[in-house]
Amino acid sequence: MKIDERITAADLKKALDDVFEVASRSTLNLRQAWAPERGAPVFTVRGEYTARGWTEWTQGFQFGNALYLFDATGDEDMLEYGRNATVRHMYPHLTHTGVHDHGFNNVSTYGNLLRFMREGRIPVNEWEAEFYRLALKVSGAVQAARFTKLPGGSGYVPSFNGAHSLFADTIRSMRSLSVGHRLKAHLNGEQDERVSLLSRAIAHAETTARYNVYFGEGRDSYDVRGRVAHESLFNVESGSYRAPSTQQGYSPFTTWTRGHSWVLCGYPEQLEYLETLSEAEYEGTETLPTLEAARRRFLEVACAAADFYLENTAEDGVPYWDTGAPGLARLGDWRSRPADPYNHHEPVDSSAAAISAQGLIRLGRYLKRGGPESEHISRQTGADGDSAGTDDAARTAASLGDRYLAAGLTVARTLFADPYLARDQNHQGILLHSVYHRPNGWDHAPDADGVPRGEACMWGDYHLLELAVLVQRLSTEGHYLVFFNV
User: Which residues on neighbouring strands pair with residue 431, listed in sequence order?
Assistant: First the structure.
């Protein structure tokens, strides 16, 4: 990827206007056309949203888009639509025990509404606020109850595939546990065992880091630092790890870029959350017993994932759907050119770019502000932290932070413009050229080459808007956008 080292958030103000204009029109188009009894919209076919029954993991994004449009533009109609739809349609997601998606559905709706009150964006109504708090507490506890225990007090929140399956995606759903903990919620188990939501979130994050993320340490023949396996499989009887796997990638030994993007986004935002905790409040695990240990581990994962992204993404910051997709060999040196969504061999995935851009920006900002991990990260990236001293280590971390921040803004600039912004007046999507499930062939391919292009998906639209609001806040020095301001 080619990073514009001089880009700033303020440079994107005009592009943000375009994003919010397109998003307002597309969200209204979908609102007028979509009947709730159809379920949750998932991805578009010829510009119209369709449902795809796998799990209902995208409904929170549908209504969350309206809430982010209010956030960005002050459109009261979007606020009322998002608020009323949340109350009317989101309650089944609060007690859904069969999915790993609580952080997607519920933090995107109930969480954003409560955040608006905390930020003074809407009037504080205590009964309404308590309704949102209760919803988030329930969601966090229900998500935490879906837990596969591993030896040594570790474990993870399994995917909808079953207790044996750990998805990389689920690190971003840990937002539900973190928010629940912030609201002083916990889970009651057998014999009234008090289960900490924070401890389960930390355990899940460490298990994901250990088995889904690679660090170039010779774990297998495809151990490249920062690579991510979509799925890890376990023997639930013994608790032993069995193998990498994937549901939506090309193979277990290549990197499905949207699975990678959840890691790249999820760990930096959890780092920001950990920064608000004290050592006394921290409830860790056997493997991460202290707050400092957790911060160092999360930073190690985030930097490894960020570096892999920068090394394995097209010049303009948009990745192809899998770094090992076989058709890439026919594209030549694809890393040295802008991504081509119209090529005849492999699709790009703009949704992975939108998620990753937010992660890069958050990681960059975290490092620029310094912290107790500065010396640690300088050693990871090749600086001699032991001999150079704390000041040099902090400068190294800040320089790395500048690089990641610029990279995230570079990706954002690409996505906020053609050919990624859905400018067609009749299109119900916002962000074009995303991919849902390439192996299953679910995505619409308009041409005989069979390569999906020109369509949108709910998570791509939502994360583009979340990215746009984050950049807007940075450009105006407004409230910094975090999920846990509840």
Answer: 421
Q: Is 322 strand, coil or helix?
A: strand
Mean pLDDT value of segment 234-244: 97
Of residues 200, 209, 192, 98, the one with CA closest to residue 149: 200
**Which structure tokens are listed for 250?**
């090309």
Question: What DSSP character marks residue 155?
Answer: E
Q: For residue range 190-230, what is the model confidence (pLDDT) as tens digits?
A: 999 999 999 999 999 999 999 999 999 999 999 999 999 99
With contact defined as beta carbons under 8 Å apart, do 203 and 285 qualify? yes
- 358-375: per-residue pLDDT in tens? 999 999 999 998 855 655
Residue 317 has which token pair? Answer: 């910051």
What is residue 42's DSSP assignment?
Answer: E
C-alpha–C-alpha distance, residues 83 and 104, integer Å: 16
Q: Model-level pTM?
A: 0.96
The reported pLDDT for the residue numbered 287 is: 87
Torsion of CA 271, 275, 279, 281, to 10 degrees: -90
Mean pLDDT along residues 410-435: 97
Q: Which amino acid is at 462?
A: Y
Cis before 289 (ω within 30): no
Average pLDDT of the chain is 94
Q: Whole-angstrom Cα distance, residue 119 to residue 390?
A: 35
Give CA–CA dist 102/95, Å, rounded. Answer: 9
pLDDT digits (tens, 9 = 90+) for 294-327: 999 999 999 999 999 999 999 999 999 999 999 9
Domains of the chain listed by start with CATH number: 9-476 (1.50.10.10)
Name the residue among 243, 391, 420, 225 with its Cα closest to residue 308. 225
Could you give the 3-state DSSP secondary structure of residue 176? helix
CA–CA separation, 108 vs 331, rounded Å?
37
Cα–chain-centroid distance for residue 184? 24
Angle between helical axes of 197-211 and 257-274 (0-180°, round to 10): 140
Terminal-residue alpha carbon distance, the chain: 36
